[in-house]
Amino acid sequence: MDRNLQAGTDVDVLLIGGGVMSATLASLLSTLEPTWRIEIHERRDGLAQESSNPWNNAGTGHAALCELNYTPQRADGSVDITKAVTINEQFELSRELWHHLAGQGRLTGGTGFVSPTPHMTFVRGAEGVEYLRRRYEALSRHPLFSDLEFSTDPEQIRAWAPLLVEDRDTDEPIAATRAAAGTDVDFGALTHSMIHDVVRRGAALHLESEVTRLRRRKDGTWRVTVRDRRWNGHTRSRTLTARFVFIGAGGGALGLLQKSGIPEAKGYGGFPISGQFLRTTNPAVVREHHAKVYGRAEIGAPPMSVPHLDMRVVDGETALMFGPYAGWSMKFLKHGSWLDLVRSIRPGNVVPMIAVGVRNLDLLRYLISEVTASRTARLRTLRQFVPTARERDWELITAGQRVQVIKKGKGGGVLEFGTELVTSADGSIAGLLGASPGASTAVATMVDLLERCFADRVEQWRPALRQMMPSLGGGTWDESFELDRLVDEAFSADHSA
Protein backbone atom coordinates (compact mmCIF):
# COMPACT_ATOMS: atom_id res chain seq x y z
CA MET A 1 0.00 0.00 0.00
CA ASP A 2 1.59 3.25 -1.15
CA ARG A 3 1.51 5.74 1.72
CA ASN A 4 2.64 8.61 -0.51
CA LEU A 5 -0.81 9.00 -2.10
CA GLN A 6 -2.75 9.68 1.06
CA ALA A 7 -2.56 13.44 1.51
CA GLY A 8 -5.83 15.20 2.25
CA THR A 9 -7.71 12.22 3.69
CA ASP A 10 -9.99 12.72 6.69
CA VAL A 11 -8.64 9.76 8.66
CA ASP A 12 -5.71 7.41 8.41
CA VAL A 13 -7.59 4.38 9.75
CA LEU A 14 -11.33 3.76 9.84
CA LEU A 15 -12.48 0.80 11.94
CA ILE A 16 -15.99 -0.56 11.45
CA GLY A 17 -17.39 -2.34 14.51
CA GLY A 18 -16.98 -1.76 18.22
CA GLY A 19 -15.86 -5.24 19.24
CA VAL A 20 -12.63 -6.82 20.39
CA MET A 21 -11.16 -7.04 16.86
CA SER A 22 -11.39 -3.30 16.23
CA ALA A 23 -10.25 -2.63 19.79
CA THR A 24 -7.17 -4.81 19.29
CA LEU A 25 -6.20 -3.27 15.95
CA ALA A 26 -6.78 0.25 17.29
CA SER A 27 -4.58 -0.52 20.28
CA LEU A 28 -1.75 -1.82 18.10
CA LEU A 29 -1.88 1.02 15.56
CA SER A 30 -2.19 3.76 18.18
CA THR A 31 1.00 2.38 19.71
CA LEU A 32 2.90 1.92 16.46
CA GLU A 33 1.77 5.20 14.87
CA PRO A 34 0.60 7.58 17.63
CA THR A 35 0.08 10.48 15.17
CA TRP A 36 -2.34 8.58 12.93
CA ARG A 37 -5.98 9.69 12.92
CA ILE A 38 -8.17 6.74 13.92
CA GLU A 39 -11.97 6.58 13.93
CA ILE A 40 -14.14 3.73 15.22
CA HIS A 41 -17.74 3.48 13.97
CA GLU A 42 -20.23 1.22 15.78
CA ARG A 43 -23.84 0.89 14.57
CA ARG A 44 -25.19 0.05 18.04
CA ASP A 45 -25.48 2.48 20.96
CA GLY A 46 -22.69 0.79 22.91
CA LEU A 47 -19.53 -1.25 22.52
CA ALA A 48 -19.26 -5.05 22.49
CA GLN A 49 -22.96 -5.73 22.03
CA GLU A 50 -22.60 -8.58 19.56
CA SER A 51 -20.03 -11.42 19.60
CA SER A 52 -17.71 -9.64 22.05
CA ASN A 53 -20.47 -9.41 24.67
CA PRO A 54 -19.63 -11.84 27.50
CA TRP A 55 -23.04 -13.52 27.36
CA ASN A 56 -22.83 -13.94 23.59
CA ASN A 57 -19.68 -16.06 23.45
CA ALA A 58 -17.88 -18.92 25.20
CA GLY A 59 -15.54 -16.24 26.48
CA THR A 60 -13.03 -18.26 28.40
CA GLY A 61 -10.12 -17.86 26.05
CA HIS A 62 -9.65 -20.59 23.46
CA ALA A 63 -6.20 -21.99 24.20
CA ALA A 64 -6.83 -25.57 22.92
CA LEU A 65 -6.39 -26.87 26.46
CA CYS A 66 -9.80 -28.54 26.41
CA GLU A 67 -11.43 -28.13 22.97
CA LEU A 68 -11.49 -31.53 21.27
CA ASN A 69 -12.22 -30.18 17.78
CA TYR A 70 -8.64 -28.83 17.71
CA THR A 71 -7.21 -32.34 18.20
CA PRO A 72 -8.79 -34.64 15.58
CA GLN A 73 -8.15 -38.35 15.61
CA ARG A 74 -6.38 -39.75 12.54
CA ALA A 75 -7.43 -42.91 10.72
CA ASP A 76 -4.72 -44.90 12.54
CA GLY A 77 -6.05 -43.79 15.94
CA SER A 78 -3.31 -41.25 16.67
CA VAL A 79 -4.20 -37.68 17.58
CA ASP A 80 -3.14 -34.67 15.51
CA ILE A 81 -2.18 -31.78 17.82
CA THR A 82 -1.00 -29.36 15.09
CA LYS A 83 -3.99 -27.04 15.30
CA ALA A 84 -4.04 -27.14 19.10
CA VAL A 85 -0.43 -25.96 19.23
CA THR A 86 -1.17 -23.14 16.78
CA ILE A 87 -4.23 -21.95 18.73
CA ASN A 88 -2.33 -22.07 22.02
CA GLU A 89 0.53 -20.02 20.57
CA GLN A 90 -1.93 -17.48 19.20
CA PHE A 91 -3.69 -17.13 22.54
CA GLU A 92 -0.32 -16.55 24.18
CA LEU A 93 0.16 -13.55 21.88
CA SER A 94 -3.10 -12.13 23.23
CA ARG A 95 -1.93 -12.61 26.80
CA GLU A 96 1.40 -10.96 26.01
CA LEU A 97 -0.28 -7.88 24.56
CA TRP A 98 -2.62 -7.60 27.57
CA HIS A 99 0.43 -8.00 29.81
CA HIS A 100 2.16 -5.13 28.01
CA LEU A 101 -0.85 -2.81 28.05
CA ALA A 102 -1.45 -3.47 31.73
CA GLY A 103 2.20 -2.82 32.53
CA GLN A 104 1.94 0.53 30.74
CA GLY A 105 -1.11 1.46 32.83
CA ARG A 106 -3.32 1.42 29.75
CA LEU A 107 -5.98 -1.09 30.86
CA THR A 108 -7.91 1.09 33.26
CA GLY A 109 -11.41 -0.23 32.82
CA GLY A 110 -11.38 -2.62 35.77
CA THR A 111 -9.94 -5.97 36.80
CA GLY A 112 -12.76 -8.29 35.86
CA PHE A 113 -11.84 -9.17 32.28
CA VAL A 114 -9.60 -12.13 33.19
CA SER A 115 -10.01 -14.74 35.92
CA PRO A 116 -7.97 -17.90 36.61
CA THR A 117 -10.17 -20.83 35.56
CA PRO A 118 -8.95 -24.40 35.01
CA HIS A 119 -9.77 -25.84 31.58
CA MET A 120 -11.04 -29.44 31.52
CA THR A 121 -12.19 -32.03 29.02
CA PHE A 122 -14.75 -34.62 30.15
CA VAL A 123 -15.77 -37.77 28.25
CA ARG A 124 -17.96 -40.80 28.88
CA GLY A 125 -17.79 -44.35 27.57
CA ALA A 126 -14.86 -46.63 26.79
CA GLU A 127 -14.23 -45.18 23.32
CA GLY A 128 -14.23 -41.64 24.65
CA VAL A 129 -11.87 -42.56 27.48
CA GLU A 130 -9.40 -44.17 25.07
CA TYR A 131 -9.47 -41.15 22.75
CA LEU A 132 -8.89 -38.73 25.63
CA ARG A 133 -5.98 -40.85 26.87
CA ARG A 134 -4.34 -40.70 23.44
CA ARG A 135 -5.01 -36.97 23.23
CA TYR A 136 -3.40 -36.45 26.64
CA GLU A 137 -0.35 -38.52 25.71
CA ALA A 138 0.13 -36.55 22.48
CA LEU A 139 -0.37 -33.12 24.03
CA SER A 140 1.56 -33.62 27.27
CA ARG A 141 4.75 -34.33 25.32
CA HIS A 142 4.64 -30.78 23.96
CA PRO A 143 6.10 -28.03 26.21
CA LEU A 144 2.96 -25.87 25.90
CA PHE A 145 0.83 -28.65 27.39
CA SER A 146 3.30 -30.25 29.80
CA ASP A 147 1.16 -29.37 32.84
CA LEU A 148 -1.92 -31.18 31.51
CA GLU A 149 -3.34 -33.77 33.95
CA PHE A 150 -5.33 -36.91 33.08
CA SER A 151 -7.50 -39.15 35.23
CA THR A 152 -10.09 -41.92 34.99
CA ASP A 153 -10.58 -41.94 38.76
CA PRO A 154 -14.05 -40.59 39.66
CA GLU A 155 -12.76 -39.31 43.01
CA GLN A 156 -9.99 -37.32 41.36
CA ILE A 157 -12.45 -35.90 38.84
CA ARG A 158 -14.80 -35.08 41.74
CA ALA A 159 -11.98 -33.11 43.38
CA TRP A 160 -11.54 -31.14 40.14
CA ALA A 161 -15.24 -30.59 39.35
CA PRO A 162 -17.77 -32.11 41.79
CA LEU A 163 -20.85 -31.47 39.63
CA LEU A 164 -19.53 -33.82 36.92
CA VAL A 165 -19.48 -36.85 39.23
CA GLU A 166 -22.23 -36.32 41.82
CA ASP A 167 -24.95 -39.02 41.42
CA ARG A 168 -23.38 -40.38 38.22
CA ASP A 169 -23.71 -44.07 37.31
CA THR A 170 -20.54 -45.68 38.64
CA ASP A 171 -20.60 -48.39 35.96
CA GLU A 172 -20.00 -45.89 33.16
CA PRO A 173 -16.31 -45.27 32.29
CA ILE A 174 -15.38 -41.60 32.51
CA ALA A 175 -12.19 -39.60 32.06
CA ALA A 176 -11.06 -36.02 32.29
CA THR A 177 -8.05 -33.84 31.62
CA ARG A 178 -7.30 -30.65 33.50
CA ALA A 179 -5.10 -27.63 32.76
CA ALA A 180 -4.92 -25.56 35.93
CA ALA A 181 -3.52 -22.49 34.14
CA GLY A 182 -6.63 -21.78 32.07
CA THR A 183 -8.48 -18.46 32.16
CA ASP A 184 -11.95 -16.97 31.85
CA VAL A 185 -11.95 -13.78 29.78
CA ASP A 186 -14.71 -11.18 29.75
CA PHE A 187 -14.09 -9.86 26.25
CA GLY A 188 -16.77 -7.23 26.70
CA ALA A 189 -14.94 -5.62 29.60
CA LEU A 190 -11.64 -5.96 27.77
CA THR A 191 -13.08 -4.28 24.67
CA HIS A 192 -14.36 -1.32 26.71
CA SER A 193 -11.00 -0.97 28.43
CA MET A 194 -8.95 -1.07 25.22
CA ILE A 195 -11.17 1.36 23.35
CA HIS A 196 -11.27 3.71 26.36
CA ASP A 197 -7.47 3.71 26.16
CA VAL A 198 -7.22 4.46 22.43
CA VAL A 199 -9.82 7.24 22.71
CA ARG A 200 -7.78 8.73 25.51
CA ARG A 201 -4.79 8.56 23.15
CA GLY A 202 -6.63 10.50 20.45
CA ALA A 203 -8.90 8.11 18.54
CA ALA A 204 -12.51 9.11 17.86
CA LEU A 205 -15.40 6.79 18.74
CA HIS A 206 -18.76 7.17 17.01
CA LEU A 207 -21.70 5.15 18.37
CA GLU A 208 -24.97 4.64 16.47
CA SER A 209 -22.90 5.29 13.37
CA GLU A 210 -23.57 2.88 10.50
CA VAL A 211 -21.36 2.56 7.43
CA THR A 212 -23.68 2.22 4.45
CA ARG A 213 -21.34 2.60 1.48
CA LEU A 214 -17.71 2.01 0.61
CA ARG A 215 -16.16 3.23 -2.63
CA ARG A 216 -12.50 2.99 -3.58
CA ARG A 217 -11.11 6.14 -5.19
CA LYS A 218 -8.52 6.27 -7.96
CA ASP A 219 -5.75 7.19 -5.53
CA GLY A 220 -6.39 4.04 -3.47
CA THR A 221 -8.17 5.75 -0.59
CA TRP A 222 -11.76 4.96 0.41
CA ARG A 223 -14.81 7.19 0.29
CA VAL A 224 -17.05 6.01 3.12
CA THR A 225 -20.67 7.01 3.72
CA VAL A 226 -21.81 6.91 7.33
CA ARG A 227 -25.40 7.20 8.57
CA ASP A 228 -26.18 8.68 11.97
CA ARG A 229 -28.71 6.23 13.49
CA ARG A 230 -29.65 8.62 16.30
CA TRP A 231 -31.92 10.55 13.89
CA ASN A 232 -34.91 8.22 13.78
CA GLY A 233 -37.05 8.71 10.70
CA HIS A 234 -34.59 11.15 9.17
CA THR A 235 -31.61 10.65 6.90
CA ARG A 236 -28.48 12.21 8.31
CA SER A 237 -25.32 11.01 6.63
CA ARG A 238 -21.79 12.20 6.07
CA THR A 239 -18.90 11.03 3.97
CA LEU A 240 -15.24 10.81 4.79
CA THR A 241 -12.10 9.51 3.15
CA ALA A 242 -9.83 6.95 4.78
CA ARG A 243 -6.38 5.65 3.96
CA PHE A 244 -7.19 2.22 5.40
CA VAL A 245 -10.47 0.51 6.32
CA PHE A 246 -10.93 -2.48 8.61
CA ILE A 247 -14.29 -4.24 8.71
CA GLY A 248 -14.52 -5.91 12.10
CA ALA A 249 -18.31 -5.95 12.20
CA GLY A 250 -18.86 -9.63 13.04
CA GLY A 251 -21.79 -10.97 11.05
CA GLY A 252 -22.07 -7.61 9.31
CA ALA A 253 -18.62 -7.91 7.75
CA LEU A 254 -19.68 -10.01 4.75
CA GLY A 255 -22.20 -7.45 3.48
CA LEU A 256 -19.74 -4.59 3.82
CA LEU A 257 -16.99 -6.53 2.06
CA GLN A 258 -19.44 -7.18 -0.78
CA LYS A 259 -20.30 -3.47 -0.94
CA SER A 260 -16.61 -2.63 -1.19
CA GLY A 261 -16.46 -4.34 -4.57
CA ILE A 262 -13.00 -5.83 -4.04
CA PRO A 263 -12.52 -9.00 -6.11
CA GLU A 264 -11.06 -10.83 -3.11
CA ALA A 265 -14.53 -10.85 -1.48
CA LYS A 266 -16.24 -12.52 -4.42
CA GLY A 267 -17.42 -16.08 -3.88
CA TYR A 268 -17.80 -15.76 -0.11
CA GLY A 269 -21.13 -16.54 1.51
CA GLY A 270 -22.33 -16.96 5.06
CA PHE A 271 -24.26 -19.61 6.99
CA PRO A 272 -25.78 -18.12 10.16
CA ILE A 273 -26.05 -20.25 13.30
CA SER A 274 -27.47 -18.91 16.53
CA GLY A 275 -27.13 -20.40 19.98
CA GLN A 276 -28.72 -20.60 23.38
CA PHE A 277 -27.29 -21.41 26.79
CA LEU A 278 -28.66 -22.53 30.12
CA ARG A 279 -27.34 -20.25 32.86
CA THR A 280 -27.45 -20.42 36.63
CA THR A 281 -26.47 -17.87 39.26
CA ASN A 282 -27.63 -20.02 42.19
CA PRO A 283 -24.76 -19.70 44.68
CA ALA A 284 -25.20 -23.27 45.89
CA VAL A 285 -24.64 -24.57 42.37
CA VAL A 286 -22.00 -22.05 41.29
CA ARG A 287 -19.66 -22.72 44.20
CA GLU A 288 -19.46 -26.40 43.24
CA HIS A 289 -17.88 -25.74 39.85
CA HIS A 290 -14.69 -23.82 39.18
CA ALA A 291 -13.70 -24.81 35.65
CA LYS A 292 -14.41 -24.63 31.92
CA VAL A 293 -15.34 -28.16 30.83
CA TYR A 294 -15.65 -29.26 27.19
CA GLY A 295 -17.20 -32.51 26.03
CA ARG A 296 -17.59 -34.21 22.65
CA ALA A 297 -19.86 -32.97 19.87
CA GLU A 298 -22.83 -35.01 18.71
CA ILE A 299 -22.50 -36.62 15.28
CA GLY A 300 -23.37 -34.04 12.63
CA ALA A 301 -23.04 -31.10 15.01
CA PRO A 302 -20.84 -28.12 14.02
CA PRO A 303 -17.69 -27.53 16.10
CA MET A 304 -19.22 -24.38 17.64
CA SER A 305 -21.93 -26.61 19.16
CA VAL A 306 -19.55 -28.72 21.24
CA PRO A 307 -21.18 -28.88 24.70
CA HIS A 308 -19.36 -27.13 27.50
CA LEU A 309 -20.04 -26.22 31.12
CA ASP A 310 -18.29 -22.96 31.94
CA MET A 311 -17.71 -20.89 35.00
CA ARG A 312 -18.12 -17.28 33.86
CA VAL A 313 -17.10 -14.10 35.68
CA VAL A 314 -18.91 -11.05 34.27
CA ASP A 315 -18.84 -7.66 35.99
CA GLY A 316 -17.44 -9.36 39.06
CA GLU A 317 -20.36 -11.80 39.34
CA THR A 318 -19.90 -15.56 38.90
CA ALA A 319 -22.31 -17.75 36.96
CA LEU A 320 -22.33 -21.12 35.20
CA MET A 321 -23.32 -21.57 31.56
CA PHE A 322 -24.06 -24.78 29.71
CA GLY A 323 -24.56 -25.18 25.99
CA PRO A 324 -24.70 -24.14 23.30
CA TYR A 325 -28.00 -25.37 22.01
CA ALA A 326 -27.79 -24.56 18.33
CA GLY A 327 -30.46 -22.58 16.54
CA TRP A 328 -30.94 -21.00 13.17
CA SER A 329 -31.90 -17.55 12.04
CA MET A 330 -31.58 -15.63 8.78
CA LYS A 331 -30.01 -12.77 10.75
CA PHE A 332 -26.25 -12.26 10.52
CA LEU A 333 -26.21 -10.25 13.76
CA LYS A 334 -28.16 -10.71 16.96
CA HIS A 335 -29.51 -7.19 16.39
CA GLY A 336 -29.55 -7.59 12.62
CA SER A 337 -32.20 -7.93 9.92
CA TRP A 338 -34.21 -11.00 8.93
CA LEU A 339 -33.15 -10.20 5.36
CA ASP A 340 -29.39 -10.48 6.06
CA LEU A 341 -29.03 -13.92 4.48
CA VAL A 342 -31.07 -13.02 1.40
CA ARG A 343 -29.17 -9.77 0.88
CA SER A 344 -25.84 -11.64 1.02
CA ILE A 345 -26.62 -13.80 -2.01
CA ARG A 346 -24.61 -12.82 -5.09
CA PRO A 347 -24.05 -14.50 -8.47
CA GLY A 348 -20.53 -15.38 -7.35
CA ASN A 349 -21.55 -17.22 -4.17
CA VAL A 350 -24.70 -19.04 -5.26
CA VAL A 351 -22.86 -22.19 -6.35
CA PRO A 352 -20.73 -22.46 -3.14
CA MET A 353 -23.83 -21.92 -0.96
CA ILE A 354 -25.87 -24.57 -2.79
CA ALA A 355 -22.96 -27.04 -2.74
CA VAL A 356 -22.49 -26.56 0.99
CA GLY A 357 -26.21 -27.06 1.63
CA VAL A 358 -26.30 -30.31 -0.36
CA ARG A 359 -23.21 -31.74 1.32
CA ASN A 360 -24.18 -30.78 4.87
CA LEU A 361 -27.59 -32.41 5.24
CA ASP A 362 -26.51 -33.91 8.58
CA LEU A 363 -25.86 -30.40 9.85
CA LEU A 364 -29.26 -29.22 8.64
CA ARG A 365 -31.00 -32.16 10.34
CA TYR A 366 -29.05 -31.42 13.51
CA LEU A 367 -30.12 -27.77 13.48
CA ILE A 368 -33.76 -28.72 12.96
CA SER A 369 -33.62 -31.11 15.92
CA GLU A 370 -32.01 -28.42 18.07
CA VAL A 371 -34.51 -25.71 17.10
CA THR A 372 -37.44 -27.99 17.93
CA ALA A 373 -35.96 -29.37 21.16
CA SER A 374 -38.11 -29.03 24.26
CA ARG A 375 -37.07 -27.67 27.64
CA THR A 376 -37.04 -31.26 28.89
CA ALA A 377 -34.68 -32.32 26.10
CA ARG A 378 -32.30 -29.46 26.91
CA LEU A 379 -32.31 -30.41 30.56
CA ARG A 380 -31.58 -34.03 29.62
CA THR A 381 -28.48 -32.86 27.73
CA LEU A 382 -27.36 -30.79 30.70
CA ARG A 383 -27.73 -33.81 32.99
CA GLN A 384 -25.20 -35.71 30.89
CA PHE A 385 -22.73 -33.22 32.37
CA VAL A 386 -24.47 -32.41 35.66
CA PRO A 387 -26.58 -35.39 36.79
CA THR A 388 -28.01 -33.41 39.75
CA ALA A 389 -29.18 -30.42 37.64
CA ARG A 390 -32.63 -29.10 38.59
CA GLU A 391 -34.76 -27.23 36.08
CA ARG A 392 -35.62 -24.41 38.48
CA ASP A 393 -31.94 -23.46 38.87
CA TRP A 394 -31.32 -22.78 35.18
CA GLU A 395 -32.62 -20.10 32.80
CA LEU A 396 -32.41 -20.16 29.00
CA ILE A 397 -30.57 -17.22 27.41
CA THR A 398 -29.95 -16.39 23.76
CA ALA A 399 -26.32 -16.03 22.76
CA GLY A 400 -24.87 -14.27 19.75
CA GLN A 401 -25.12 -15.04 16.05
CA ARG A 402 -22.25 -16.77 14.29
CA VAL A 403 -21.87 -16.58 10.53
CA GLN A 404 -19.81 -19.53 9.33
CA VAL A 405 -17.76 -18.89 6.20
CA ILE A 406 -18.83 -20.42 2.88
CA LYS A 407 -16.32 -20.12 0.07
CA LYS A 408 -15.37 -21.66 -3.24
CA GLY A 409 -13.66 -25.00 -2.95
CA LYS A 410 -13.73 -28.69 -3.75
CA GLY A 411 -17.13 -29.76 -5.03
CA GLY A 412 -18.22 -26.18 -5.61
CA GLY A 413 -18.00 -24.85 -2.07
CA VAL A 414 -16.81 -25.55 1.48
CA LEU A 415 -18.12 -24.59 4.92
CA GLU A 416 -15.43 -23.26 7.26
CA PHE A 417 -15.78 -23.10 11.05
CA GLY A 418 -12.79 -20.89 11.76
CA THR A 419 -11.99 -17.25 11.05
CA GLU A 420 -10.83 -15.86 7.73
CA LEU A 421 -9.10 -12.56 7.05
CA VAL A 422 -9.95 -11.11 3.63
CA THR A 423 -7.65 -8.36 2.34
CA SER A 424 -7.50 -6.39 -0.89
CA ALA A 425 -4.47 -6.75 -3.16
CA ASP A 426 -3.31 -3.20 -2.38
CA GLY A 427 -3.78 -3.66 1.38
CA SER A 428 -6.14 -0.69 1.68
CA ILE A 429 -9.05 -2.65 3.14
CA ALA A 430 -9.51 -5.81 5.20
CA GLY A 431 -12.42 -7.65 6.73
CA LEU A 432 -12.75 -10.55 9.14
CA LEU A 433 -15.24 -13.36 8.53
CA GLY A 434 -16.15 -16.39 10.61
CA ALA A 435 -16.37 -17.32 14.27
CA SER A 436 -14.36 -19.49 16.68
CA PRO A 437 -11.67 -19.12 17.95
CA GLY A 438 -12.28 -15.46 17.16
CA ALA A 439 -11.76 -13.17 20.12
CA SER A 440 -9.17 -15.38 21.81
CA THR A 441 -6.83 -15.12 18.84
CA ALA A 442 -7.64 -11.51 17.96
CA VAL A 443 -4.06 -10.36 18.50
CA ALA A 444 -2.55 -12.99 16.19
CA THR A 445 -5.15 -12.17 13.54
CA MET A 446 -4.45 -8.45 13.75
CA VAL A 447 -0.68 -9.03 13.55
CA ASP A 448 -1.37 -11.04 10.39
CA LEU A 449 -3.38 -8.07 9.11
CA LEU A 450 -0.47 -5.68 9.78
CA GLU A 451 1.89 -7.91 7.81
CA ARG A 452 -0.50 -8.23 4.88
CA CYS A 453 -1.84 -4.67 4.68
CA PHE A 454 1.14 -2.61 5.86
CA ALA A 455 4.01 -4.46 4.20
CA ASP A 456 5.84 -1.17 3.63
CA ARG A 457 5.91 -0.38 7.35
CA VAL A 458 5.82 -3.67 9.21
CA GLU A 459 9.62 -4.12 9.29
CA GLN A 460 10.12 -0.79 11.04
CA TRP A 461 7.32 -1.75 13.43
CA ARG A 462 8.85 -5.11 14.39
CA PRO A 463 10.97 -3.85 17.33
CA ALA A 464 7.89 -2.27 18.92
CA LEU A 465 5.77 -5.35 18.20
CA ARG A 466 8.40 -7.59 19.79
CA GLN A 467 8.51 -5.35 22.83
CA MET A 468 4.76 -5.81 23.20
CA MET A 469 4.81 -9.51 22.33
CA PRO A 470 8.23 -11.11 22.95
CA SER A 471 7.35 -14.43 21.31
CA LEU A 472 7.04 -12.66 17.94
CA GLY A 473 10.80 -12.27 18.01
CA GLY A 474 11.50 -15.78 19.19
CA GLY A 475 11.67 -14.74 22.82
CA THR A 476 9.73 -16.12 25.75
CA TRP A 477 7.23 -14.58 28.11
CA ASP A 478 7.31 -15.08 31.88
CA GLU A 479 3.93 -16.73 32.44
CA SER A 480 4.33 -16.45 36.21
CA PHE A 481 3.30 -12.84 35.73
CA GLU A 482 -0.04 -12.20 37.45
CA LEU A 483 -2.04 -10.27 34.90
CA ASP A 484 -4.96 -9.54 37.18
CA ARG A 485 -2.65 -8.16 39.88
CA LEU A 486 -0.91 -5.78 37.47
CA VAL A 487 -4.21 -4.59 36.01
CA ASP A 488 -5.46 -4.00 39.54
CA GLU A 489 -2.40 -1.90 40.29
CA ALA A 490 -2.86 0.10 37.10
CA PHE A 491 -6.55 0.62 37.85
CA SER A 492 -5.86 1.70 41.43
CA ALA A 493 -3.15 4.13 40.36
CA ASP A 494 -5.41 5.64 37.72
CA HIS A 495 -8.24 6.27 40.18
CA SER A 496 -6.07 7.56 42.97
CA ALA A 497 -4.47 10.15 40.69
Automatic annotation (TrEMBL):
This is Probable malate:quinone oxidoreductase. InterPro entries: FAD/NAD-bd_sf, MQO. Its cofactor is FAD. The gene is mqo2. Belongs to the MQO family. PANTHER family: L-2-HYDROXYGLUTARATE DEHYDROGENASE, MITOCHONDRIAL (PTHR43104). Its EC number is 1.1.5.4. It catalyses: (S)-malate + a quinone = a quinol + oxaloacetate. Keywords: FAD, Flavoprotein, Oxidoreductase, Tricarboxylic acid cycle. Pathway: Carbohydrate metabolism; tricarboxylic acid cycle; oxaloacetate from (S)-malate (quinone route): step 1/1. It holds the Pfam family Mqo. HAMAP family: MQO (MF_00212). GO terms for biological process: tricarboxylic acid cycle. Coiled coil: none annotated. One of its GO terms (molecular function) is L-malate dehydrogenase (quinone) activity.
